[in-house]
Task: structure prediction
Amino acid sequence: MRKVIYLMWTDTPGTEFEARLLSWLAPELRAQQGVRGVQLNIVDAAVAPAVGLRMENSAQGFDAMCSLYLDESAELAVLQEYIQSCCVQFSRYHVDEFEPLANTSQLAGLGERTPGFSQVAMLRCPQSMAYEDWLAYWRGVHTQIAIDVQASFRYVQNVVSELAGNDVTCYHAIVEECFPAEAMTSSEAFYNAVGDQEKFERHLQKMMESCQKFIDFDEIDVVQTSEYRF
Result:
């Protein structure tokens, strides 16, 4: 099975855009031949409290992300027509997905919003690092640190293998991390240290020290979203 991610931009963000994605786009895509799963990540009012966590460096953050899980019979050109009909611009990323932390505690029904929020981080390999070293540190070292010190209940790594479309900027990886709702406004909740200042400071320091080893903070883009799976 292959995974394709579309970052989508609209000139009419709001409830009508969101409703079109949820009530029309996702069901239409899911009904097409070769489509085994659809996930939508939408920047909506539910994640407005997380605005302080948003990071934009290279481009304006996307309005929605559509992830397609496809078998070989899927006609990508046909699927892309549906995507294009719902946005004014898109970037398409073919990715290899790894899920070191699956969501087993905050499950929602098909088409329903996953509790909490999903933070999507778009990464680039810093110019100071060889790509192989960057990938090895991120996947082999940082992954477990992030899981250990944060309150995330889902962690997905999407390593980009191919890029197409009207790209705003090029990323080497797209990360999905799901957190409880209180983490939108509480750093202690984000770092799984509510009521424990010493633990919070220890977790924050460990996370930042690790991030500094493979992330250029002048290039990372981070967008908070609502997640829906179909």
